[in-house]
Amino acid sequence: MASLINFDKYFNNFPQMERETDFDFFWKNSIIDLKRIAIEPVNHENSRLSSPRFTVTDITYKSFARTSIQARLYMPKKRKHPRPVIIIHDYLEGTAFKGYKLETDFAYLFITLRGHQILKGIDFSNQKKGFEVESPGYMIENILDPDNYYLKGVYLDCYRAIDLLRLYKDIDCSSIGIIGKGIGGAAAAFCATSSKRISAVVLDSLSFSDLPKSQNLADGPASGEINTFVSNARGRRKVLRRNLSYFDAVHFSDKFETPLLMTTGIRAQSAPAECIFSFFNASASSDKTMEIYPSDTETAGGAQQFKKSLTWLKKRVYIK
Question: What is the pLDDT of the chain when averaged over all its residues?
């Protein structure tokens, strides 16, 4: 007989906010510095992926530290001036929601996390099947320097995508949706609290949330890289904790007022449900919903949940 789940431990779970006093100043200045960098988009139509439903364009653009970021834009052929949805994949994941059907109500911008363009074709899920797959170590890149930390780049790359979309005259950027998966969800939370153009957000199996708790609970490449570094940096743990606090998704939650849909699989290992609920419970949004899948892992709800997410977004991104 299956054991009953105590949902009280999730719905009554609230985080301890441990933001640094210069948290807002840090991110305000980071965005100011980002805007000094020209976007310089380069577009190439992808005839192989284009279809009767969508024209697909491969794009590169400049972001934090003048790094070139890759993205792929799907423009519906039969909808004039569609509103866009930005889709951000998880750490060490090739493409978010690969193979899922896209509705032609939106234009979709799929962002490739920095560094991941060279990882395509590597199956990191083999780690859990007993195969040795070396993790790239991006999560500890400049971890002792918050001004240049890897996740700062990831968050700003996604924020920059908002400005990128505004350069396309056939897209209506007065209202934008975001779907973020795992680490991509943390980047989406940052964007929603930093831009007034974001009208609705879906956080799917959010990770890097409530770090004091999640680093002890999570079992995945991102948390593993950091925990390995911590175990070898005994004299610098206080500095590490301070530095990572700038990127903890939960520290954006009480400023998060955008309509919010979250999904969680109770059996997820890289995105513990307790830490997802930390964000959800602390969120300032007056329109928030949690989709819970008791038997699922990080793929909570699969293609059916993705379809529900698009329906939910349409009602809010296209609201008059």
Answer: 92
